[in-house]
Write a structure and sequence with these properties.
single chain; about 650 residues; alpha/beta; eleven-stranded mixed β-sheet; two-stranded antiparallel ribbon; 23 helices; about 45% helix; globular
């Protein structure tokens, strides 16, 4: 749930970019090629990320011109200057960064020392992109609670020191793609915000307005996904830099190289939009109220990804409302959103009543963060206390907070709220599946052939029942729902022999059980089948569409993420993965048919209760399917 604020205002925003802008043509002067493939990788990355220039705090010889603490101090001075404020009036300094200049002490303390500042409270947040938001949230909470009248949040990054060619000497200038990638993506810079309990005139292009912080929302999914971006681990993530005999040995093995596993990045935006859908569902944000969308992304390649996900969720924000300075400031990590907000306010005029939404995904081990700001007139009375989430939901109950995964204009009015609740159920289910012993073992590359066989032995009996309960459900449909019967029957026909494909995969992988009926019964799978058979036998079991959503969604959204891990862990022939390959490619079509079936069911529903039955069944199915995942390896703990 977001942290709401009633009395926190942005009094000023400033930033600092070191040196002169470095164009793409000048990159090699600072970040020199390492080997023969460096040039090709650089051209590919630059063609995709859309960055035209960036800033470095090192010179062409690799010498440090500005320390990280010094850049942060410059950003703070710029911030205070714009507000005509004094450092002596600030009693809290919160910093965010992926790393200061020293391993110890904390970065905020080093900044305080650089400023020669008076005694004050400090907080150092260590992270990556979302660390800047964490610093803002900490400063805002301190002001909201009355402990501080004014607080500074600052974020600063200096990754260029890691990219200079001399860093790769110990490895003979060798580097894999993951460590090559970020050399052309990241740049240096710092941003600072001054927060206070009184709204003052916003400096910059806007006149007669103040900016109020409405809420901050952050969630980490580190328990769901492996490390994506890291510094200090070996390439296989198995050894930390302090475990080597010396840092020289760690550097020679690549443990001090900054790496990004780009294959994981699409999942980052997927969970981010799911979080946004939840915020919309609970009434914290409405897409039609967002006037400016400040989106932190590392590459313009991800613009259509975010845009497509928003559209599929029915939460699209017109692109003319988007703002990014990536092209001319580069990606400055934790400092990016502070620099972006400062430059936006410096160059764009905002009007009372407008809302500014900031979206900050962090790829380190996947965190997603949002901030909502609202523009107020200086003459406006203080805003009323924020309504609790329940009240917000009631206020927006008639709005389509999330639309179906196709053109919202063609959707029935009833479909939006239904998909919103289903998305929330799915998001929680997927997160829990990702933390089961089965998936954890796959992610940590400890999965063996015996584990795969065990999984299939548990799974086949449940898949076998799919077409049966679907056909039972069709037989239970009354006259009102007959138009739906043919659609479900078609789907049941496609599912009928799926279990035979899975069983043959099992046998091809060396499965010892030759008789289908002799396969072990998974308690979760048995409970799921019993529940669905029981439901199918009731009059008009429309709720079964909720079960199909979870089951087919697992095949289309979870299986494609697990299959590469499975193939990387096992040395098995292609004919042992046919079932997984098929569902990864075809369940998207199945889900499109599901959507048509839901629309048809709602149109045929004479009671008005079909949507609630679908939602309730999806929730129960998710719980039982999750139980099945757990029972595959019930004796193992993550």
């Amino acid at each position: 749930m977001p942290i709401a604020f009633d009395r926190v205002y942005l009094q000023s925003a400033g930033y600092f970019m070191p040196g002169q802008p470095v164009s793409n043509d000048e990159l090699d002067r600072y970040i020199a090629p390492l080997n023969r493939i460096s040039g090709r990788i650089k051209q590919r990355i630059l063609a995709e990320n859309g960055i035209k220039q960036r800033y470095y705090a090192i010179d062409a010889e690799g010498g440090t011109v500005y320390s990280n603490a010094r850049m942060a101090a410059h950003a703070i001075r710029d911030c205070l200057r714009r507000a005509a404020a004094r450092l002596d009036d600030v009693s809290l300094l919160a910093s965010g960064s992926s790393g200061g200049d020293a391993l110890m002490p904390g970065f905020a303390n080093m900044i305080q020392g650089e400023l020669a500042a008076h005694p004050m409270e400090t907080l150092s947040v260590h992270g990556i992109c979302a660390a800047g938001v964490s610093a803002i949230q900490a400063a805002a909470q301190a002001v909201e609670m009355g402990g501080h009248d004014r607080a500074l949040a600052v974020a600063s990054e200096l990754p260029s020191r890691l990219f200079k060619r001399s860093r790769f000497t110990a490895r003979g200038y060798d580097a894999d793609f993951d460590s090559h990638f970020l050399r052309w993506m990241l740049s240096d810079g710092a941003g600072a915000l001054l927060l206070g309990n009184a709204g003052t005139a916003l400096p910059g292009a806007s006149q007669g307005v103040r900016l109020k912080l409405k809420w901050v929302h952050q969630r980490s999914f580190s328990g769901d996904y492996p490390v994506c971006m890291q510094l200090g681990l070996s390439a296989d993530r198995e050894r930390v830099h302090l475990d080597y005999p010396s840092w020289t040995d760690a550097e020679a093995d690549g443990a001090l190289a900054l790496r990004q596993d780009i294959r994981l990045l699409p999942h980052l935006f997927d969970i981010g939009i799911h979080e946004y859908a939840g915020l919309a569902r609970d009434g914290w944000v409405r897409s039609d109220r967002i006037d400016h969308f400040l989106c932190h992304y590392s590459s313009e390649k991800f613009i259509p990804v975010v845009k497509d996900l928003l559209e599929k969720a029915g939460l699209e924000i017109p692109q003319e409302r988007w703002y990014s300075n990536l092209a001319w400031r580069g990606n400055t990590g934790a400092a990016s959103i502070l620099i972006m907000l400062a430059e936006f306010l410096e160059t764009r005029a905002v009007k009372p009543g407008q809302q500014i939404l900031c979206y900050i995904p962090e790829s380190g081990r996947f965190t997603t963060a949002y901030m909502l700001w609202e523009v107020e007139s200086l003459d406006a009375a203080p805003a009323a206390a924020a309504a609790p989430p329940a009240a917000r939901v009631a206020d927006t109950a008639g709005n389509d907070l999330i639309a179906p995964p196709h053109d919202p204009a063609t959707a029935s009015p009833e479909l939006g709220p239904l998909l919103t609740e289903l998305a929330s159920i799915w998001h929680d289910y997927r997160s829990r599946v990702w933390r089961t012993p089965l998936v954890h073992k796959l992610r940590t590359r400890r999965f063996q052939t015996g584990d795969y066989l065990n999984w299939m032995e548990n799974w086949i009996p449940q898949v076998r029942e799919g077409s049966k309960w679907m056909r039972e459900g069709v037989a239970s449909l009354g006259p009102d729902y007959q138009p739906l019967a043919a659609l479900i029957e078609t789907h049941a026909g496609e599912e009928q022999n799926d279990f035979r494909i899975l069983f043959q995969d099992y046998r091809n992988a060396g499965g010892p059980i030759a008789d289908l009926d002799a396969l072990r019964r998974n308690p979760g799978g048995e409970a799921l089948n019993a529940y669905l058979h029981g439901l199918a036998a009731t009059r008009d079991p429309i709720g079964l569409l909720g079960a199909i959503y979870i089951i087919e969604g697992t095949g289309q959204r979870i299986i494609p993420a697990l299959l590469p891990l499975l193939k990387a862990s096992l040395s098995l022939p292609p004919d042992t993965y046919r079932f997984l390959e098929y569902h990864g490619h075809n369940d998207e079509n199945h889900l499109a048919r599901w959507l048509a079936a839901v629309e048809l069911a709602l149109d045929c529903d004479p009671t008005g209760r079909a949507a609630r039955r679908i939602i309730d069944t999806a929730r129960h199915t998710a719980a039982l399917y999750l139980m099945q995942f757990h029972h595959v390896m019930e004796n193992e703990a993550p």
